[in-house]
Design a protein that fits this description.
By secondary structure, this protein is α/β, with parallel strands linked by helices. The chain has helices at about 45-50, 70-75, 85-90, 110-120, 135-145, 160-170, 200-205, 205-210, 215-225, 335-340, 345-360, 370-390, 400-405; strands spanning about 15-20, 35-40, 60-65, 80-85, 100, 125, 150-155, 180-185, 225-235, 255-260, 265-275, 285-290, 290-300, 315-320, 330, 390-395. The protein is about 30% helix and about 20% strand. Helix 1 links the parallel strand 2 and strand 3 (about 60-65). The protein is globular and about 60 Å long.
């Protein structure tokens, strides 16, 4: 059983408390520097730049960003970095120790293959790892021989309220073994990206890959089991229907229900709505076992919270035991510096702390390429289920996880 964190609620703690299971300190001295090369400096890439700047001993030395406006914004954040004209110039630079890929989804697989052929450095790969089953197979084969670490950037694992929920669930202290898991995300529509690549399934892998691979990863992480069957019902109801591009009207889903059966007998449900940004909380996660229920509530990006409503909501955890009855609430405030550096409740910084430590030889990979590819397969299977109206078997056929990820 995992070691119990002192933040975990039990009967000795009052009904309302405060805790952040992840901690940021900008004062810790490092024995060595870590120099980053960045591939892709759009909206998410710039969030990574702001967070790397907070890490003691870390610096960005090279960036590859084809869009001039995005490159200019990035260099304003890291003026010491040099903009180069190709991925190869980043990878082969003598002053680069590790890499970050934050390019559009459909570029990830080809860029990872190019890196593997040139100079396989430690790598932080933004989600989703790729966008097609063919790329899943190619990256699985690549992973078997890649000599350096590959960490897939699943930021949601490192949101403090979600991290605390995971500690609670894995301890089984207040729930017992997981029986049911529900994840709800009610959020804003997809934002505008360079070239509008995020408007079409062929570039994103589909909403259930691009947006929801985070949640499929959380399902595997929380249940500690592998999915065997997935069923989705989804549609394009409201978003982007008035937009026109050379490819036509956007085809990305804006709402979905996804039901997942796991090998352990556990079940998980995802509810996604991308036209509900008026909600107080953006994510709500509920886990139920024979002894009780644990929930976490996560607000959306603070920059989207209306000023006239005052301060943005504080994330919280709620534990509701069956006996003795009585829900207990815990506020989970996020460090202000970490919160201001991005749109993911501080998680990008906490993730970078761990990745940086592994690059320096401390700790171990927490989100492997196998984890990232499994989430992509689940997303692609969910997209296919939504298209056909049929449940997809993840144990056999073209979506069989075991076959696709064999040896990874």
């Amino acid at each position: 059983m995992p070691r119990r964190n002192p933040c975990i609620l039990d009967a000795t703690i009052g009904k309302v408390g405060r805790c952040n299971p992840l901690h940021f300190s900008g004062d810790r001295a490092l024995n060595q520097s870590t120099r980053y090369g960045i591939i892709g400096c759009g909206m998410m890439g710039q969030e990574h730049l702001r967070n790397i700047a907070l890490l003691p001993g870390a610096s960005v030395t090279r960036i590859f960003e084809p869009d001039d406006a995005m490159a200019a914004r990035s260099l304003a954040l890291v003026p010491q970095a040099q903009r180069v004209a190709s991925l190869a110039e980043v990878v082969m630079a003598d002053d680069v120790d590790c890499l970050l890929i934050a390019s559009p989804n459909f570029r990830h697989a080809e860029q990872l293959r190019e890196i593997a052929a040139l100079r396989p450095l430690p790598l932080l790969l933004e989600k989703p790892a790729c966008t097609s089953l063919a790329d899943v197979q190619a990256l699985a084969a690549l992973a078997r021989d890649y000599p350096a670490l590959i960490w897939v950037a699943m930021e949601y694992r490192y949101m403090p309220p979600v991290a605390l929920l995971a500690q609670e669930v894995h301890s089984q202290l207040n729930t017992g073994p997981v029986t049911m898991l529900s994840i709800r995300e009610h959020r804003f529509p997809f934002l505008v990206k360079v070239g509008d690549w995020n408007r079409f399934n062929q570039y994103t892998g589909g909403t259930l890959v691009e947006k929801c691979c985070h949640f499929f990863d959380l399902m595997r992480h929380l249940t500690q089991s592998e999915p065997v069957r997935i069923y989705a019902s989804a549609s394009v109801a409201h978003n982007h229907l008035d937009e026109q591009y050379p490819l036509g009207t956007p085809d990305i889903l804006d709402n979905a229900y996804v039901l997942v059966d796991f090998a352990s007998g556990q079940r998980a449900l995802l509810e996604l709505c991308m036209f509900a940004e008026g909600a107080r909380y953006q994510e709500e996660i509920s886990v139920v076992g024979p002894q009780g229920k644990v929930e976490c509530f996560v607000p959306g990006p603070g920059r989207f919270w209306p000023e006239h409503l005052g301060e943005a909501p504080t994330p919280k955890l709620v534990i509701s035991p069956r006996e003795p009855k009585g829900p207990r609430e815990l506020d989970v405030p996020v460090d202000a510096v970490a919160l201001a550096a991005g749109d993911h409740n501080g998680s990008t910084l906490y993730q970078h702390q761990r990745f940086n430590a592994v690059v320096r030889g401390e700790g171990a990979i927490e989100v492997s390429l196998r984890d990232g590819l499994a989430a992509v397969v689940m997303g692609l299977a969910a997209q296919e289920s939504a298209r056909t109206g049929q449940a997809i078997d993840l144990t056999r056929g073209e979506y069989a996880l075991g076959s696709l990820l064999n040896g990874v």
